[in-house]
Every structure is written in C-alpha cells, then in structure tokens.
Design a protein that fits this description.
- The chain is mostly beta strands.
- The protein has 3 domains: 9-122, Immunoglobulin-like (Sandwich); 129-221, Immunoglobulin-like; 226-353, Beta Complex (Ferric Hydroxamate Uptake Protein, Chain A, domain 1).
- It contains 6 helices and 25 strands.
- It has helices spanning 9-17, 224-228, 231-241, 249-255, 260-264, 314-317, and strands at 26-27, 38-45, 56-63, 70-73, 79-83, 88-97, 100-102, 105-108, 114-122, 129-137, 148-151, 157-159, 165-171, 174-181, 188-194, 199-206, 216-221, 245-248, 270-273, 283-289, 292-299, 301-304, 307-309, 323-329, 348-353.
C-alpha cells in the first residue's frame, strides 16, 4: 500500500497485534438459529492476510416485509455472525473500516443453511483513478467542443464531446499536471490531485485568447459507493439524453430538506402526497404512468442501496443527512434495466446512502 493510505499497513498491523486475537464472533452462534439461515462474515484488509477487528458490517435486507438495515461491529477477530430474520430472502452486505469500505456482496438465504462471506476492505489505493468533467467557455458558459486534454508526462489524451464532457481513465493516484488546449482559447495547465479508486470531477472554464481572464477550475471528489454502483455513469448518460433526474449530496446540502420525500418532490413530474398529518403519511408518486397521464397519480417503485423497499416507508428508513445520491425516473421508458420489473410502470426512485 502507498504511504498516502489513510491507515498505513504498519499502523494497521500494530493495531491488530494490540488487540485480543481470540475474540469471539459478534452476534448469535449458528447453533442457536434452528431452522433459520445463519450468516457468518469475515472482514479483512484487501490481501486477506489481516483480519480487521471492530470493522462495521452493514446489511440491507431483501424481504417482502420492511426490515430495518443493520449496522454492527465485528468482533476482535474480525468476524461477525447472526441468525437471519425469517422474512429475509437475501441481503446486500459490505464492511466499513474508518473512511474505507469493501465492495458490496449480494446474498441469498435458505432456511437452516449457513452462508459465509469474506469482505475485503479496499484502502483507496488498489485501483487507478480517473479525471472527468466538462470544458466550458469562461465567458459564455457554453460547452467547448474538441478541446484536447492530457496529463504532462503521459501519452494518453482525450477530446471533449458536444456537451464539453471528457474522461481521462487509468490515472495513477497522486499529483498530476493537466493540460487543456483548444484553438481560439488560452492554454490551461492545472495541478490536480487524483485519489486511487475514485473519480475527480472538474469543471474547466477556458478563456478566449484575446480576453485577459484567469482560467477557472472547480474540483470535487466523488463518494466511492456511488462510483462503484454506477450512479455517476447513469447520471452522465441520463442527462445527455434527457432521461431521469439526479440529485448529488451537494444538491441535498443546498436544499436541506426536512425529509427525503421533500427532496424527491423537486423532480419534474413527481408530486408529494400527504393525506394525513403524521410522519409516515407522506410519499411521492409520478404524475404519469405507462400509457399516458394518470389524474390520480401513480406510486413509484423505491430502492435503498439497491434493495427494493416500500416507497411509503422511505422517510422512516433513511434521513436526508444519510443520503449521498438520488435517482428519479418518471416512467418505465426512463428506467435502467437494473431497476425495471413488472411493477415498474410508474418509474422508480433510487436512494444511495453515503
């Protein structure tokens, strides 16, 4: 691992050696589960050589009943066990350790059957990063087409498309000097920091050559979970073809909604229904369904971190401060394949936590 990793290998080894190696697994033992399935989780760093004591195990259940997500700490040996709720047919599970996390695993349960899963926490430097964004005219804010972008000292270069968008992939982590050139504009060189395994997003304002202005660059680092689950790719292509509405954590912070449903109501074609006065009495629905306008509204499908949930329970399962990204699709024609289904004619709302 690199010297810039949040928790260096030497520090990690020292932390592990200082803890009791014989700690028992957290949760319930498999022998207590009877006819219910049992789940056994082992959390290690990415090589699998060192267990991670106290790592947080996160579970999102797949069930016909509403089951609250689970967050529990692994034991001193990095292990966690529990008896699966009788109503749960599956789950999405991942592990978190400090600011880093493992990849998600999708599980299916059978009564009386133990399920074992090994989660390897990735410490941010196991994959190359990438630089994505848009090139705009700093005066008019119109897209700059066919601007050439490259990193000094590296042979690869890309050009911006009709929307001014670009993507430089396979970029090693660390400091790089980005060079942007376009005929009719002043050349730009900008020092950018790339984090391995993440995308660094830039908005670049090129200045027409005769104008005395300083180039403008806005930098943002994307959350890993949204990157892994394809949120930014769907947002990019959705906005390109006009399909779906997307809210990032910056949008949510600016809006500061009291409930998640209040933020969803800002999407075009979506309305908030509150027939009662209680906390659980509000939900969102589409103004249209497959086949045309629906005067009475049409209830959307809902997903939380990839798992289906009742849309009317959304406000009780997640708070705005926990949300990292939102996708809203008005009808079946806008839905990506992973969120389609027989009951998706009204569209869907997809919530990703931070």
């Amino acid at each position: 691992m690199g010297s810039k990793m949040r928790l260096g290998r030497a520090a990690l080894v020292a932390a592990l050696l200082s803890m009791t190696a014989a700690g028992s697994a957290a949760g319930q033992e498999a022998a207590e589960c009877g006819e219910r399935a049992s789940l056994h989780v082992l959390v290690t760093e990415e090589s699998g050589a060192l267990n991670l004591p106290g790592a947080t195990v996160v579970l999102r259940w797949t069930s016909e009943q509403v089951l609250r997500p689970l967050r529990e700490a692994a034991g001193a040996d990095g292990r966690f066990s529990l008896c699966v709720p009788a109503d749960a047919s599956g789950a999405t599970v991942w592990a978190e350790f400090g600011d880093d996390s493992s990849e998600e695993a999708t599980l299916a349960f059978e009564p009386g059957t133990p399920v074992e899963v090994h989660l390897r926490v990735l410490f941010g430097d196991t994959e190359p990063g990438r630089i994505v964004g848009r090139v705009l005219d700093a005066s008019t804010e119109e897209p700059v087409v066919t601007a050439t972008l490259s990193l000094v000292g590296r042979p690869a270069e890309v050009q911006s498309d009709r929307q001014g968008r670009f993507a430089l992939t396979g970029v090693p982590g660390g400091e790089h000097l980005l060079e942007v050139e376009r005929i009719g504009y002043a050349s730009l060189r900008y020092q950018v920091t790339v984090v391995r395994g993440l995308s660094t997003e830039l908005q670049i304002g090129l200045v027409p050559a005769p104008v005395a202005m300083e180039p403008l660059v806005v930098t943002a680092t994307r959350p890993r979970r949204l990157e892994v689950n394809g949120f930014y790719d769907r947002k990019y292509f959705g906005e390109l073809i006009g399909g779906g509405t997307y809210f990032t954590v910056e949008d949510i912070d600016r809006r500061r909604p009291l409930r998640v449903s209040h933020m969803l109501a800002d999407a075009p074609g979506i309305r908030l229904r509150c027939p009662g006065s209680g906390f659980r009495d509000c939900w969102v629905e589409s103004r249209r369904a497959s086949g045309g306008f629906t005067p009475g509204g049409c209830e959307l499908s809902a997903y939380l971190d990839g798992s289906p949930i009742p849309v009317r329970e959304l406000d009780t399962l997640v708070l705005p401060a926990e949300v990292g990204g939102i996708e809203v699709y008005q009808g079946a024609g806008e839905l990506p394949p992973e969120f389609g289904g027989y009951d998706a004619r009204c569209g869907a709302v997809v919530i990703w936590t931070k």
